[in-house]
């Protein structure tokens, strides 16, 4: 018998030593390899106790030394709460419950928390800053707004265009606007919004037709009136 044969899992396979919160390319393997140590179980029980009493709970802080597994824990916790992934034919929360061994309290916590509707937005803030202009870099809030707009399906590179799309969406006009824009411009709106100067007249005409407005330079108006606030 060889040493590798006494282990439940393959011990010579390649494992990524650095976990990136916003990278899901190896998510199935990361879930399989994650281990609930005694300390992690204790911390998770504390977390879930606060999560269930969310009226007094508005955030959590994960601290630890470099390389201690903060990003990995954050990532696992996020997908555990959202519970939208299916691994090995079952909801990902079931995979985590199997890691609890005899800790029935933690199993119950995971079961309860995974049924609460949630949305996880994981990102590396340093990467977001690298893609932003010098003017945007002056505001941490700008980075959060960019990521939030992208998660909603709006144009994250220009917040005033994202606001334009959001308001159309709220009024029930966005899908009709996109369809009409493509028929007139010959390109998808996702491409046209990157070249708003070129398509400005088409944007105006389509916007007016879909909404019944009579606006000129509608995106320029949004640009001039956009103000970034915490609200």
Report on this model:
This protein has 231 residues and is an all-alpha fold. Helices cover 51% and strands 2% of the residues. Strand 1 and strand 2 form a beta hairpin. Helix 2 packs across helix 5 and helix 8 crosses helix 12.
Q: What does the average pLDDT come to?
A: 86
- The helix count comes to 12
- DSSP summary, beta strand count: 2
Shape: elongated
Low-confidence stretches: none
Q: End-to-end distance, in Å?
A: 64 Å
Radius of gyration: 23 Å
Lateral arrangement of strands in the main beta sheet: 1-2
Could you describe the largest sheet, including whether it forms a barrel?
A: 2 strands, antiparallel
Jot down its keywords.
12 helices, mainly alpha, two-stranded antiparallel sheet, 231 residues, 51% helix
Q: What are the SSEs and their pairings?
A:
Layout: H1 27-33, H2 38-52, H3 70-82, E1 86-87, E2 90-91, H4 92-97, H5 104-114, H6 125-130, H7 140-151, H8 159-170, H9 174-185, H10 189-192, H11 200-211, H12 218-225
Antiparallel strand pairs: 1-2
Helix pairs in contact: 2-5, 8-12, 9-11
How is this structure best summarized?
The protein is mainly α and 231 residues long.
